[in-house]
Structures are given as structure tokens and as C-alpha cells.
Amino acid sequence: MPKPKGKGGKNRRRGKGDGEESKRELEFKEDGQEYAQIIKMLGNGRCECFCFDGVTRLGHIRGKMRKKVWITVGDIVLVGKRDFQDEKVDILHKYSADEARNLKQYGELPENARIHETAVDIAMTTEDGDNDIGIDFDDI
User: Fold this and answer.
1) H helices of the chain, where?
2) pTM of the model
3) If we measure between CA atoms, which residue out of 72, 119, 65 comes closest to residue 93?
4) 10 Å Cβ neighbour count for 88?
5) Which residues, 6 or more positions from 53, have their beta carbon under 8 angstroms from its beta carbon?
6) Are 93 and 77 in contact (CB under 8 A)?
7) Rg (CA), the chain
């Protein structure tokens, strides 16, 4: 049987993920950037993003964020528009729920922006803004 040579393994070297984020400065959009909400994860570091300028685009998670910052459906992100491809954007930064609320208070995000909602909540809401999925129980 081999002798123990050290304490712990791969997970110990990575450090403990306490989940405690330090306060970071709020990043605002610049020229060529836009705020967006993740609608659907497509795999391979790609996702469908609804940009708050009213256009749905294909988002690509940049390499610096891959496997370090987990992006899920409903997250508010900062995306960089591509000059040569209007239908594709690069995800530059993910906002926490508190940061997204601050952006909404500052007037950067529109009032109809929903912060950290699940895919079911997004899919159930119609364009009219009411939470109706088309089932009318009075008819039954």
C-alpha cells in the first residue's frame, strides 16, 4: 500500500469555494456593448440572448469565463456586439442579482427586465405581459 505523500488532492489545490463574492465595481456598457438576458442554453459555450435593444442574438461565452463563471437561463449579462456579424455577440460579464437590481435602479435596464427568472417563467409569459399559457378553465 502506498504511503500518503500529502494532504488532499485536486479539490484541495483548487481552494474552497465559499461562494463569498467580494464587492466589485459595477460595469456599465460602453460603445459596441449591450445588456442582455439569457433565454436558452445551446451547449458548446453558446446561448440564445435577448438583447435589451429588442433583438435576439446568438451569444458566445468567452474563453476567460468558461468553466469559471457559470451562466444559466435568466441571467443578466453584458455582451459585446460584433462589427462584422450583427446576429452574434460575445458574453463579457455576468451580473449577480444585486448588481442587476442596481442597474435597473440606475435606469440602465428597462423596467420590463426580469431579474433571475427561470426558463419556465420566461416561456409562460406572453408578449402582452400577462402570465397566461392559454388554458381557460371556465370552458371545461
Assistant:
1) 10-14, 97-105, 119-124
2) 0.69
3) 65
4) 15
5) 34
6) yes
7) 20
